[in-house]
Write a structure and sequence with these properties.
78 residues; mainly alpha; 5 helices; 67% helix
């Protein structure tokens, strides 16, 4: 049963680009938009846009739900 749950949790990530997954990992690690932007060489507003698009694509309404999804998908450890 957990394999089915894992497949469901991971499947929405297939819709994401490599950059979106990279941003998702950093958001889930608790990094700020400014920190993420600095490490990727973009503006913080760009990261805010990525975060909004991630939430829309993954059908979550807030950042904690985004983090939970990343954890369930195995993008970050606890």
């Amino acid at each position: 049963m957990s394999a089915v749950r894992d497949a469901i949790a991971v499947s929405p990530l297939k819709r994401l680009s490599a950059r979106e997954i990279q941003v998702l990992k950093m958001v889930a690690e608790g990094r700020t938009s400014k920190e993420i932007a600095r490490s990727l060489g973009v503006l913080p507003s760009t990261i805010d846009t990525y975060r909004s698009r991630l939430m829309a694509k993954l059908e979550v309404t807030d950042v904690p739900a985004l983090v939970r999804l990343a954890i369930r998908a195995g993008l970050i450890g606890l």
